TrEMBL record:
Gene3D superfamilies reported for this sequence: P-loop containing nucleotide triphosphate hydrolases
Protein name: L-glutamine ABC transporter ATP-binding protein /L-glutamate ABC transporter ATP-binding protein /L-aspartate ABC transporter ATP-binding protein /L-asparagine ABC transporter ATP-binding protein
GO molecular function: ABC-type amino acid transporter activity; ATP binding; ATP hydrolysis activity
Annotated family: Belongs to the ABC transporter superfamily.
Length: 257
């Protein structure tokens, strides 16, 4: 077994279900974008989702925290069923952190204000406590010295680390990443991946859409391949990369590896 696989084995996966998706379907108008998605994610799992552009990866991730509505089937996060009830949506969003390709920081707020906004206004945390928490996570992503600056004054890699810190300030049980390194210059990709690796090692449950297959091999306990709105294949990384089953997966891997 490779060293990476050995390291991966040491990260525990619980038998507690974090996310349970059953028979989920979604349409954009008449376009059937997600087809019969079944996916159970256990606490502590690090799942990498890959697949061609347009296969529905972002839509799947966005359905999990109700940024998109699904029309059929069910999604449960930590036992809370995602329905149109705003209470449930709020509860799920408070448990699920999300990082996007384009960071989505508020440009007119400082780094610290970006990190304290939701804890103060959504979680009703006292300001002093929110600042302490924010500084703790900014230290964790190794940019506490940038706290007073504005996003536009930071590099892309730093901004993405702020986005991760900002999510962590809400104490999520699960983190969703949608191509967090795709908009970054190559020299900045590693610093963001290193932050994600640290999170994984601390036991965070993570679903990551990424084309960083090195990250998948090192960190994921499961790789999922999507095509045309379906989960085509999933396996632990070694088997997924070394012995893909479907022709579509083989074709995809031959194009990216
Ligand atoms: P991926 O993230 O795998 O590239 P997406 O989930 O972004 O795929 O998109 C899946 C498909 O849904 C694509 O064909 C895309 O054009 C389409 N799509 C995405 N968002 C919308 C939208 N808001 N309205 C209509 N079609 C959309
Ligand atoms: Mg996408």
């Amino acid at each position: 077994m490779s060293e990476q696989a050995t390291a991966r084995k040491e990260l525990a996966v619980s038998d507690e279900v974090a996310i349970d998706i059953r028979g989920m379907n979604k349409w954009y108008g008449t376009f059937h974008v997600l087809r019969d998605i079944n996916l159970t994610v256990y606490q502590g799992e690090r799942i990498v989702i890959c697949g061609p552009s347009g296969s529905g990866k972002s839509t799947l991730i966005r359905c999990i925290n109700a940024l998109e509505e699904h029309q059929k089937g069910s999604i449960e996060v930590d036992g809370t069923k995602l329905t149109n009830d705003l209470k449930n949506i709020d509860k799920i969003r408070s448990e699920v952190g999300m990082c996007f390709q384009h960071f989505n920081l508020f440009p007119h707020l400082t780094i610290l204000e970006n990190c304290t906004l939701a804890p103060i206004w959504v979680r009703k945390e006292p300001k002093k406590q929110a600042i302490e928490t924010a500084m703790h996570f900014l230290e964790k992503v190794k940019i506490p010295d940038q706290a007073k600056k504005y996003p536009g004054q930071l590099s892309g890699g730093q901004q993405q680390r702020v986005a991760i810190a900002r999510s962590l300030c809400m104490k999520p049980r699960v983190m969703l990443f949608d191509e967090p390194t795709s908009a970054l210059d190559p020299e900045m990709i590693k610093e963001v991946l290193d932050t994600m690796i640290e999170l994984a090692e601390e036991g965070m449950t993570m679903l990551c859409v990424t084309h960083e297959m090195g990250f998948a091999r090192q960190v994921a306990n499961r790789v999922i391949f999507m095509d045309q709105g379906q989960i085509v294949e999933q396996n632990e990384p070694e088997a997924f990369f070394n012995n893909p089953q479907s022709d579509r997966t083989k074709l995809f891997l031959s194009q990216i590896l």
